[in-house]
What does this fold into?
Amino acid sequence: MLTRSDDWYKLLDQFFNDFATILSRELELLEIGQKSLDEAIATVRSETQAVLDQAVNEIKLMESTK
It folds into this structure.
């Protein structure tokens, strides 16, 4: 489990790629006026949390099979 800030190195590159994709998409929607700032922030928060939860579960699985 990611309990300390120095555990961030354990996150897979895919998490950071997914986060960048989510953020980029929401910023574009904000820029073209299809979403409000509050809507974009809410989407980034919820989708990133889901991606983070998945990444943490994958780390736990990898660590349990060592």
Summary: The mean pLDDT is 87.
